[in-house]
C-alpha cells in the first residue's frame, strides 16, 4: 500500500525554523530572545512541563524550548509576506 505523505504541522514548523536560521539569523535571535522572556514571564513559578521553574531548567527543558520556538516563528511570520522570494510559501 502506498503511503500518502502530507506534511504535519511539526514538519512545517521545522521548515520555517530552518529558513529563519538560514536567512534571518539576526531577526531570529532577537525574536527568540523576546519570546524566551515572554514565555518565562508567563511561567513564573511552574514551567510549561509543570516542573518547578528555574532559569537552568528552562534552558534545558524541551517543552519550554519548543514553546519559545513556536512563538518566535509566530513573531517572524511577516517575513513570508514581506520577502516572498527569500521565504517561499510553505506548502501542504
Ligand atoms: Zn520544563
Report on this structure.
The structure is a single chain. With 92 residues, the protein is mainly α. The protein has one domain. Helices cover 63% and strands 0% of the residues. It is built from five helices and no strands. Helix 1 (9-23) packs across helix 2 and helix 2 packs across helix 4 (62-75). The longest helix has 18 residues, at 25-42. The radius of gyration is 15 Å and the shape is globular. The structure holds zinc ion.
In short:
With 92 residues, this protein is mainly α. The radius of gyration is 15 Å and the shape is globular.
Q: What tags apply to this protein structure?
A:
0% strand, binds zinc ion, 92 residues, mainly alpha
Distance between the termini: 22 Å
Any low-confidence stretches, pLDDT <50, length ≥5?
none
Shape: globular
Number of helical segments?
5
Structure ligands: zinc ion
Output the helix-strand order: HHHHH
Helix content: 55-70%
Mean pLDDT: 88
How many β strands by DSSP?
A: 0
Summarize the main sheet.
Answer: none
What does the radius of gyration come to?
A: 15 Å
Strand content: under 5%
Structural class: mainly alpha
Count of separate structural domains: 1
Q: What topology does this entry show?
A:
Elements: H1 9-23, H2 25-42, H3 55-60, H4 62-75, H5 78-82
Zinc ion binds next to α4.
Amino acid at each position: 500500500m502506498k503511503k500518502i505523505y502530507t506534511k504535519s504541522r511539526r514538519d512545517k514548523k521545522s521548515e520555517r525554523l530552518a529558513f529563519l536560521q538560514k536567512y534571518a539569523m539576526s531577526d531570529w535571535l532577537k525574536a527568540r530572545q523576546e519570546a524566551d522572556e515572554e514565555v518565562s514571564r508567563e511561567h513564573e513559578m511552574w514551567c510549561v512541563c509543570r516542573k518547578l521553574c528555574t532559569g537552568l531548567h528552562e534552558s534545558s527543558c524541551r517543552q519550554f524550548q519548543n514553546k519559545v520556538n513556536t512563538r518566535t516563528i509566530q513573531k517572524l511570520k511577516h517575513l513570508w509576506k514581506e520577502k516572498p522570494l527569500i521565504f517561499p510559501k510553505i506548502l501542504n
